[in-house]
Amino acid sequence: MIIGIVKEPEEESRVAMLPEAVKTLKSWNVEVMVETDAGKRAFADDALYQESGAEIVDRSTLLQKADIVCGVQALSIAEIGSMGPKSVLMGQFNALYNPELTHFLIHESRTAFSMELVPRTTRAQSMDVLSSMATVVGYKAVLMAANLLPRFFPMFMTAAGTITPSRVLILGAGVAGLQAIATAKRLGATVFAFDVRQAAKEEVMSLGAKFVEVEGATDDKSAGGYAVEQNEDFIHRQKEAIHEQATKADVVITTAQIPGKKAPLLIEERTVLAMKPGAVVIDLAASSGGNCALTQADQTVSINGVSIVGVGNLAAQLPQDASKMYGKNYLNFLKLIIKEGQMNLNFEDDIVSGTCVCHEGKPVNSRITQMINN
Ligand code: NAD
Q1: Ligand 1 pocket, 258 CB below 6 A?
Q2: pLDDT tens, position by position, 321-361
Q3: Residue range 48-74: average pLDDT?
Q4: What order of strands is seen across the sheet that includes strand 190-194?
Q5: Does ligand 1 come within 6 angstroms of the Cβ of 122?
Q6: In a 3-state reduction of DSSP, which class is residue 344?
Q7: What is the DSSP letter of 348?
Q8: Residues 105-124, buried b or exposed e (16+ Cβ, 10 A)?
Q9: Does 225 score more than 80 pLDDT?
Q10: Contact 285/8 with Cβ under 8 angstroms?
Q11: How far is ligand 1, taken at its centre, from the CA of residue 313, in Å?
Q12: What span, in angstroms and rounded, lies between the C-alpha atoms of 288 and 296?
């Protein structure tokens, strides 16, 4: 069996698997093909892949010959059409929100797995690319803020006087938010955080940050640990609390998301206008509508001296470790579908079925089935 690792589009510097992952695949008795320059932007050149046992090939050879084609971003529809008819496509296609691609895969009787669908269960944690990339993004967001801020993060007591620590506010304390808290604390900032899930409070406090209390959040246990939409009264009180905290902050990092919904609006225009000049807002929810009213996706805007960064693909700015984590997640998943060097798709396994967009054209993941039937 042959596993192929494709080169990503121009704007993507990660690669699905680094040479170290190729070594593991080889030890499973699997052949590996890597597209020319696939790892170049993640600082893994072709020679390193060759040393690990991979064959370097051009894109069309890889697409025709590989039994499993692995990438980070989705391939174009035309390219999927040029893959072998029985080969399996893997990547992170955002399948639930990319109906054109999902319908194409089904129509063309393809088998495809989309890594963002990996169930968020304890057993699947080691395959969870969303968590891995949220870790990268939370860390990098703080560094980006520290670079833009015209102040120090830590407190300094110097002969030239005392510098007070910066005040950082993190909105949304999920995987990215908790990593942002930890990173901002390491840099010496005073950190405040807010989340609608009560479970987040303990995690925030255990990292040494202060939790901003807003009473009366709806915390739905049936949402599987995720946040749900809040009622009008809560939203109003939450905006007031955030307004008060944000106007004292030097940096605000927003990460709040609700699966399948537009990101909640947490920072209103009046809040930005009342913030300190020089303050920085990093909006990690920019691609799903933004948590700040003035965010523009993939752009940095300056309003009254406040920089607002509408973050795009931040994980691609740390390509080496992001690819390392991605590759490890991939290997842990591939372990479930490869036995003795051959493909072995066991749909009784909830991780295999949960991650599968479609098998030979039949939708497998229950949310994909629902999407197709609607
Ligand atoms: P996410 O990216 O969907 O959302 C980020 C955060 O925003 C969440 O903490 C959410 O509660 C918060 N949020 C949503 N609306 C908000 C609002 N109006 N105001 C303030 N905050 C708001 O979440 P995520 O980081 O992917 O993870 C969320 C949950 O999933 C956590 O409980 C996490 O522990 C759990 N999780 C479990 C696994 C696993 O078991 N394999 C893996 C990853 C995450």
Answers
A1: yes
A2: 999 999 999 999 999 999 999 999 999 999 999 999 999 99
A3: 97
A4: 210-211, 190-194, 167-171, 251-254, 280-283, 306-310, 300-303
A5: yes
A6: coil
A7: T
A8: bbeeebbbbbbbbbbeeeeb
A9: no
A10: no
A11: 19
A12: 11
245 is catalytic: no
DSSP class of residue 314 equals: G
Q: Which residues contact 199 (CB under 8 A, 6 or more apart)?
A: 219, 225
Adjacent-strand bridge partners of 34: 5, 56
Is position 128 annotated as part of the catalytic site? yes
pTM over 0.85: yes
- Alpha-carbon Rg for the chain in angstroms: 22
Given the structure tokens 């060759």, which residue do they identify? 50
3-state secondary structure of 271: helix
Of 370 and 230, which is predicted with more confidence?
A: 370
Beta strand spans in the chain (E): 2-5, 31-35, 55-57, 68-70, 88-91, 111-114, 156-158, 161-163, 167-171, 190-194, 210-211, 251-254, 280-283, 300-303, 306-310, 338-339, 342-343, 356-359, 362-363
Give the pLDDT of residue 257: 87
Can 330 be counted among the known catalytic residues?
no
For residue 285, name the pLDDT band (cuts at 50, 70, 90).
Answer: very high
Ligand 1 atom with the shortest distance to the CA of 257: 4
Is the CA virtual torsion 169, 302, 294, 319 positive or negative?
Answer: negative
CA of 256 to the centre of ligand 1 (A): 8
Q: Tell me what the pLDDT averaged over the chain comes to.
A: 95
132 is catalytic: no
The half-sphere exposure of 312 on its side-chain side, counting CA atoms within 13 A, is 9
The neighbour count for residue 331, using CB atoms within 10 Å, is 19
Q: What is the 3-state secondary structure (H, E, C) of 123-191?
A: CCHHHCHHHHHHHHHHHHHHHHHHHHCCCCCCCEEECCEEECCCEEEEECCCHHHHHHHHHHHHCCCEE
- Segment 25-43 shows an average pLDDT of 98
